[in-house]
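Researcher: Next entry in the queue.
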Amino acid sequence: MDGQTEFDVVVAGSGAAALSAALTAAVGGLSVLIVEKSDRIGGTSAMSGGGTWIPANHLAAAAGIADSAEDAWRYVRAASPDGWEADEAPLWRAFVAHAAPMLRFVEQHSPLRYELIDEPDPQAEQPGGKSVGRMVSPRPLSRRLVGRYARRIRRSTLPHIFSYREAHGIDPYNHPVRAYAGLAPTLLRRWLTDTRGCGTALIVGLLKGCLDAGARMQLGARVVGLLREPDGRVCGVSVEQDGRRRNYKAARGVVLATGGFEWDAAMRAAHFPGPLDRLGSPDTNTGDGQRLAAEAGARLERMDQANVYPTLPTRYDGRAHGMPMTWQAAPHSIVVDRTGRRFGSEYDYNLGEALDRRDASGAPLHLPAWLVGDARFLRRSAGFRWYARKERGWVRQAADLASLAAAIDVPAAALAATIARFNGFCAAGRDADYARGESVWERYKSGNRHGPGNPTLGAIERAPFVAVPLNRSILGTKGGARTDDRGRVLREDGGVIAGLYCAGNAMANPIGTRALGAGTTIGPCMTWGYLCARDLLGNAPA
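Model: Structure for this entry, 542 residues:
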């Protein structure tokens, strides 16, 4: 980049929220600088599956699927935690009104092309819920589209050689040979052309749109301070790069989209006490945006919210890491807490919320937690066995349930009673405690959308018995600066901090730990980036 130091907008971060903001502002004619503290682009979004939850989108309409912003509003209200509406209603309204226009805008101004995924809302039975139509994902794109940045797109622990649709349709985790053999010509072509799907395609498409619209990019540039006018207005950033500090002016404002704080041990311990299995995000998510906003006088909220999701052990950048995978959703197994009792359906998309449930003092109610299964659980998935090898001692085995209970420090009588009760449900064909396998989502997850029976059930009775830790794994915290419905950061007293915006996992996210859809991190985050930029476009300096 040349010596330019004055821009209309500076965006901190390079994930989906950041690039959505940068694209919208640049297409609108503003000069935009994107600053990313890592030497790689895309943050958590690049590592993700790329699923994007957008209600009332144009792809669903083209497919004849009825939906509306009002239906989405009813669903968000009904499916969100009790008590959230009082604070989040304006942000929910803004999201459901602008999500579909955002998606159309992105397709118009970038090479991204989305396809409709047949996943239902996880709480489709709620008012306004839908069994199909709100989940979309980007079609594969070649990294070569972004030229010299192609090698800088952050890699994933997930196999992005598949698209989201393929990964969920042919299931390479449970059926790797069939998946790779069945798509061999397609996969070879993608390998030869450096084409990838999922989060890689998402970031490639957004970045290409930003570059074509004239946005600039600085890598290895960490924002360490906000520049302010005498009246308190945020007017730029101070950046550390290559051991030197440099200031960049932002005439209209700064967007903080730096991700979560899960890799900051002190912040994580303060807001997520108790056992942690793994982190599944880039280790650059250390709370920079949260600290910068707080230093500017912002009110921080929702700091105890996160994308809590099961992970498998793997390695990333030479260190232990978590690969997101719903490995616990399997017959012949259950999940129990430290008392030896179940506390929810193992197929529930929001099992992570149950794992993270707290008591009045903020301590975890159910941790440590364990998946307990029999020999058939262990045999059924080559994928599970492969990843289990990456963490020695992760899977415990015993010849009988009493020995297993002793090995994991769970009351043996309680565990035996829980398993006997579950086995009775399997014989009867219905989980009378948590209705496992009966909701629209859980029938979809089990592959039994319209068929008879309940394939999610399977008795636990064949030795050896196994136990696997299933505590919180965090793919991204979701707390930060409180914003208004335009993305403007608010002070402790509720006033606006002029010139400062926040989006994505760096904000007090209005959709927290409880997900409303499989893509309710990326879809809303992109929409909040879009909303920030729309306000900046109308926010000309005096």
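Model: Residues 85-108 form the longest helix (24 residues).
Researcher: Noted, moving on.
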